[in-house]
Amino acid sequence: MLRLGHILYSNCFPVHAGLIDRGLPPDLTLVEGVPSALNRLLAAGAIDVAPSSSIEFARHADRYRILPDLVIGARGPALSILLVGRHPSSLGGRRVGLTTASATSVALLKILFRRRWQVAPEFFPFDQIREDPFAAGADAALFIGDVALRADLAPDAEARIDLGEVWLEETGLPFAFAVWQVSGGDPGALRRLHAALLESRAYGLAHRADLARRYEATFGLPADLLDRYWANLVFDLDAPMREGLQLFYRLAVEAGELPSAPPLVWL
Question: pTM here?
Fold first, then answer.
């Protein structure tokens, strides 16, 4: 039985929608978690496939392969990857909170501070579900996923910066936040899973508005917001998305987040 990681945030749902809404095949089980938790499970061999943080592939390129055609990305604003600041001048702040729920977004933010804003703040981690980074003295903080979509997120903050939008402005390329990565499993079963995921994605996109209405309580987000959010995201790992991913790896090396930029290795 293959073990497939499933991100608890709504951004993963359109690709897994057919599997979840119509029922899993008998040889597949879902393991749920936030991106950082799935990263750890994949590295430990506790799951076989997961839509893991894209930087995780670069950190384990000797062990992982990528399922073609599948991505959680954005061509511009991502809506759910936000740097939130107390004031418009917060980018010059000395303390920036980094959510522990993400790996790729943290690396992206460090790249942007270095390349775009030329600022070297003090970073500190925080749990975005349980902790208030501003109470801990943050001038700005990175939030991701459904937490970043909430209307009540840091209501007094005066600055909100979408990292997907800034990346596009800086590079002219889309950004791949997560790719489906393989750490193990029978080759034939993996090929069947890949085909099932492509079919599941087609189902999710074809029934997007209906799924948003039926699953709004699951994610605690209004159906119209879910529908707009899913329409905004990109789930096709096409040539521009791959180019953006490889540029991200090169810039992550310059920022000290990776020792080297690996080639993409496919299943």
Answer: 0.95
pLDDT at position 36 is 84
Given 121, 149, 171, which residue is the final one in a domain?
171
User: Is 267 a member of any domain?
Assistant: no
pLDDT reported for residue 258: 97
Which tens digits make up the pLDDT trace of 183-199?
A: 999 999 999 999 999 99
Question: What is the phi/psi pair of residue 105, to 5°?
Answer: -65, -35
In terms of DSSP bridges, do strands 2-7 and 140-144 run parallel, antiparallel, or are they unpaired? unpaired
C-alpha torsion angle, residues 65, 168, 7, 47 (rounded to 10): 10
Q: Let me know whether 15 and 38 are in one domain.
A: yes
Residues whose CB falls within 8 Å of the CB of residue 61, separated by 6 or more in sequence, listed in order: 262, 263, 265
**Partner residues linked to 236 by β-bridges:** 70
**pLDDT for residue 93 is more than 70:** no
